[in-house]
Amino acid sequence: MSRPATPSTRPRTRPRTVLAMSGETRDAILRPTALERLARVADLEPALLVTDFGADDPAQRAALRDAEALFTGWGCPPLDASALSAMPRLRTVVHAAGSVKHHITQDVWDRGITVSTAATANALPVAEYTVAAILFGNKNVLESARVYRESRSRVNLLTAFPAIGNYRRTVGIVGASRIGRRVAELLRPFDLRLLAHDPYLDEESARALGVERTDLDTLARQSDVVTIHAPELPQTRHLFDAGRLALMRDGATLVNTARGSLVDTDALVKELVTGRLNAVLDHTEPEVLPADSPLYDLPNVLLTPHIAGSQGGELHRLADAAVDELERYAHGLPFAHAVDPTTLHQQA
């Protein structure tokens, strides 16, 4: 992550700032060193944490009344008109996580409040997970591991897996989002053909990314691995339904680190049960599958519990990115990762 284009000195102002997130989020993201740096950048009470803007707490009411900035994270309540009425001096919201759709409302934009997000920082581990899934998918790791585990003897790879490998295979990237673009960047060193589909991706941007623009059906037909990075919108629900899944090549792998609703789970299960397709799923619909779902046990499925995004030590990157943004604000500089309300509908 880039640092603000300012010396690491005390900012021009230290904006009055209030933390608004769940206690679990604060404890996970704001390690002591991050809190110390935040306290140098902002005027805040680290022990004061807002989890409910309507709470009957005199100290909270006083802090919100004077707040110029909110430092938010997962678990921040919605910033609607009622919440904002208690914050007459609020000028900016810095979010130490990805999507702001859970707490930023139209009332925020109507008041001219600026918003920043650490979505770019959060995109990095998702892209890394995805690249690992793509390379393992083309290498047929799940199936070869199963065969080896069951045989417990030497496997003749030339006869058992004659077509595996990543050389000149085709990867289809659905969605030129922050994550989709980062996936394309990370795949550049490999001998892969990259297809991409995104209604907002123009030819010049596609060339810069090193991808071929194509329609979604062509991408599904030609790709050895399809990886989904589109936002969850009404028009993207079941983007991969029974018909589109049927277009995919025999033996192809579907990777979903976006949202479960983008794939018709019932249709996917039918394909996977036959063994025709493989899948790496970090998101499903529902997000926690029923205990009797076959996806837990199918040998051609790698199912993970929403781990692709920032976890563990990666959470500290989110805090660093958010403090960077608040430092920029304190120095009177524009955000490096401002949220544009006019394009928010296109994003996760």
UniProtKB/TrEMBL annotation:
InterPro entries cross-referenced by the UniProt entry: D-isomer_2-hydroxyacid_DH, D-isomer_2_OHA_DH_cat_dom, D-isomer_DH_NAD-bd, NAD(P)-bd_dom_sf
Swiss-Prot/TrEMBL keywords: NAD, Oxidoreductase
Domain of life: Bacteria
SUPFAM superfamilies, per the entry: Formate/glycerate dehydrogenase catalytic domain-like, NAD(P)-binding Rossmann-fold domains
Residue stretches making up the D-isomer specific 2-hydroxyacid dehydrogenase NAD-binding domain: 138-308
Pfam families: 2-Hacid_dh, 2-Hacid_dh_C
Stretches assigned to the D-isomer specific 2-hydroxyacid dehydrogenase catalytic domain: 62-339
CDD domains, per database record: 2-Hacid_dh_8
Gene3D superfamilies for the chain: NAD(P)-binding Rossmann-like Domain (3.40.50.720)
Protein family per UniProt: Belongs to the D-isomer specific 2-hydroxyacid dehydrogenase family.
Protein name in the entry: Hydroxyacid dehydrogenase
